[in-house]
Structures are given as structure tokens and as C-alpha cells.
What we know:
Largest sheet: 8 strands, antiparallel
Oligomer: single chain
Helix content: 25-40%
Shape: globular
Order of helices and strands: HEEEEEEEEEEEEEEEEEHHEHHE
Mean pLDDT: 81
Radius of gyration: 29 Å
Number of helices: 5
Amino acid sequence: MIFNKLKKLxxxxxxxxxxxxxxxxxxxxxxxxxxxxxxxxxxxxxxxLVQIEQLENPAADxxxxxxxxxxxxxxxxxxxxxxxLRNFCMPTTNRVVTxxxxxxxxxxxxxxxxxxxxxxxxxxAFSGKVRMVRYDGKGYGKYVVIRHGxxxxxxxxxxxxxxxxxxxxxxxxxxxxxxxxxxxxxxxxLHFETRLCGVALNPAxxxxxxxxxxxxxxxxxxxxxxxxESELANRLRGAGSGRDDMAQNDDDVELSxxxxxxxxxxxxxxxxxxxxxTLSSIARKRGTTVDALCKLNRIGKRIRLMPxxxxxxx
Length: 314
């Protein structure tokens, strides 16, 4: 009797022990979908945190700090850096560059001057965060500094009025000020700077004011080539570069590869956005398609159009 009980107990124990791995596998199997969901949640949370960080401190990997104490502070430039020029907006619809980047009157001119009139709307070139809104009577006058997620900082000087506040988030195309003649200025114009790590780069390398366009979706910056490309950009897109019969030499060809010129023709037509217009309504009005507008202007279908924004439509 005792032997039979011991035999039965041993059998039950063996069956129970044999079942443990199976139960463990069942638990792991049930846990797997939960783990996948948690990983998905973690990814969403992480992505959201990255977005928040980018909003709070754009291009934080390039800049050591965020403060409102200085207009610019030069740090070490990377040897190479790819700058995203998509989803841009020209800061002004005016096309006339009156002064180039570079040596001027015995000193270095760190930006370009574009003819604007007092009261003309000045817009953010890219989305970003306003770092400074100040007045400098001996220099920029009323100016605004914006740091962008693509690594650039843009400076807008000599305005008659600033329309944004420090630490404010702005979208490309948002009005940030009005054209003026404040500070060290001899006539109404926009002084426009583009800086990387606080170092002034020639805006003509990126922006073609005459054609209201940028040079491409991306610009590859090489520190060793900037001075050379800056000079060539002035010849192609700077003040006095509007001669359609200008001979093209080897240097011009070289730059057209690094930063191609948006060829100007009198057939290019533009549409000025008015309040309430959409890409669809503009496409219908101009006899084109939304896809064509997006491709021609290098914008997405969900872009928020701003009154006064200029779009090519042919």
C-alpha cells in the first residue's frame, strides 16, 4: 500500500516537474505581445522627447547652450555638414541684392543686404526658435535671431518693428518683423545673415533672391571650400549678377555642381498667396496641379501657406 502511494506520488511529481517548462513557455508567449507594445510605446515616447528637445533647443548637437545674451558667438565649425534647405521661405519677396557678403569699406560685411521698404513684411526663412529680439543702435538696429533645426541661425537686421518675442517658436514663413532703416544703416533694407556655429556664411550660397529660391534641397558645407564658394556665389547670385549674357567660366561650372544656380528666365511666373488660399485653390486658379506646385517650390502638401508667400507655378 505504502509502495503504491509512493509510486503514485512520484508519478505526480514527475508530471508536475515536466509541465513547468511548458508553463514557462506559455507565460513568455503571453508576455511577448506586451513586450512589443511596451517597445512601441517606448519608441513613441522617445520620439516625442526628441521632438520636444528639438523645439526647446534646436540643433542642440551643434551648440553648447541656449541663451539670449549675444547675437552670435563663434565656435568650432565642423569640417563637413549637410544643411537641409527644404521647407524654406524667402525672408522677403524683394529680389534686389544691394550689397554682397565679404569685404566692404575696409571691414567684413557678414551678411547680404536686400532692398526692402519701410513696413515690408519680413518672414522666418525656416522653422525654429527665436533666440534674440533686441536693438543695437550702432549696428543691427532692431534685429531678430532665429536658431533652426537644420543647424543654421539667421539674423534679420535694421527692421522698423519686431513682431516676435524671445524663445517663441516660429514656422517658416511666419512674419517676424517689418522692413526698416534702424541702427547703422544708410537706407531702408534688410541685412540678412546665415550663421553655422556662430560663424557667418554667405547667404548667397543657399539663397537666390533674384529667383526667390534656394539652391537645392540640401547644401553640403565644406569648411575648406567656403571662402572659394562664397566668392563664386556672389558672382552668380549677388549684387550686380543679373547679366543674362554673363560668360560662364570653369569656376562657375564648379560652383554649379556644389550649389547650382536656379536659372532665371522671363517665363517664370509667380503667385502671391492671399488669405484663405490653399494649394488646391491656387492650382485650379493657375491651371496646374498640387503635385506640380509642391515639386516646383520644394514644399509638402501639408505646408501652411502664409498670406504674402510667393509660389512659382510654371
